Task: structure prediction
Amino acid sequence: MIANNARIITFMLAFVSPSLAFTTNSAPAQKTQLQLSTSNEGSRRSFLTNVVATAAVLPSLVLSNPMSASAFGGVKADEKGPLVYGDDSIMSPKEHGTTASPVQSDLRYGVSNKLADKISSYNRVFAEMGGYWEGTSFENDVRNLVASTGGPVTFYDSVSGKPLFVAPKGRSVDDFIEESKVHGWPSFRDEEVVWESVRVLKSSGETVSTVGTHLGHNLPDRSGNRYCINLVSIAGNPTSQ
Result:
């Protein structure tokens, strides 16, 4: 519980202290993942200072189980569908952060390998900048693949190469791209998750791969579970394993 609350406190701080180096996007509360800049190392002391300064206002924000009532609109996770919970031990320390190895060297969509490694293996709550994917080849690649194959696109773990998401399913490519633009990160629904390789941690809503890759968070809305995912974490290439 202490470790979980520490993660939640860190997550909430950016909403109550605008001077933090890790900030939220200025769009509505649906953009709930925090943004992680690759050039913010010098501001970590400021972050810790703000922890103390802001602690007095946090008790009312800290949830013992954020999945029971989302802090971002009060929408609960839909547990009646295919959602698969996993144990926190999935994210236990390994040879390379929470994963056994670094991200692949030839990631797709032109994403930054340095950022991908930091987000995927050395991070539990922060995220790439909102809208980061719009500066990559993601949209063009997805649209071209859907147009050429007539089917959805498979997204692979940046570390293991395991399939994690297959989208769009049950909606058009336009709807998939539009929802991702609205929220700032690639956004997937239950039927688009490859549950053999993906788990959601019930304690926090953190969405991870079974090898320990941090992917993002489940941020339910009125349409159901919505997996707000870092592109850098799902830019891998398939492996033969």
Q: What stands out?
A: Residues 1-34, 36-72 have pLDDT under 50 and may be disordered. The two ends are 36 Å apart (CA to CA). The longest helix spans residues 2-16.
